[in-house]
Amino acid sequence: MSDCIFCKIAAGEIPSNKVYEDDKIIAIHDLNPMAPVHVLFIPKEHYCCANAINEENCDIVGHIFSKIPKVAKELGLENGYRIVNNCGEDGGQTVMHIHFHLLGGKKLKVDMA
Ligand code: 5GP
Ligand code: ZN
């Protein structure tokens, strides 16, 4: 997707503060952190949102979740953390390239809606 900001970040066309990268995903510090630690896990392949995940491509979600504990530990989140995915307008998604927020570094408020 040529006009997608996360595709550009994943391709290295726009600079980002990387905490993890492999052939399938990138993890970067959020530009506007909502917690002391706020990292975004982004697949390099473009999927708009959770609605684009199906039986054929769902391995990418497992791959992301398999890397979260390692990154969380490296960032000092031994006490726990939150993983968030916003889907679509009502879900509060603002960048239409699927990503998972990793939030932590303080006791987060529980506010599910
Ligand atoms: P969403 O609201 O779609 O779930 O989350 C999008 C997130 O991407 C927001 O937390 C926002 O701060 C972050 N973001 C938007 N543009 C950029 C960018 O260019 N670089 C980085 N590192 N984060 C961004
Ligand atoms: Zn994209």
Automatic annotation (TrEMBL):
The active site is at H99 (tele-amp-histidine intermediate). InterPro entries: Histidine_triad_CS, Histidine_triad_HIT, HIT-like, HIT-like_sf. A motif (Histidine triad motif) lies at residues 97-101. Pfam families: HIT. Residues 5-113 form the HIT domain. GO terms for molecular function: catalytic activity. It comes from the Bacteria. PANTHER family: HISTIDINE TRIAD HIT PROTEIN. This is Histidine triad nucleotide-binding protein. It comes from Ruminococcus difficilis.
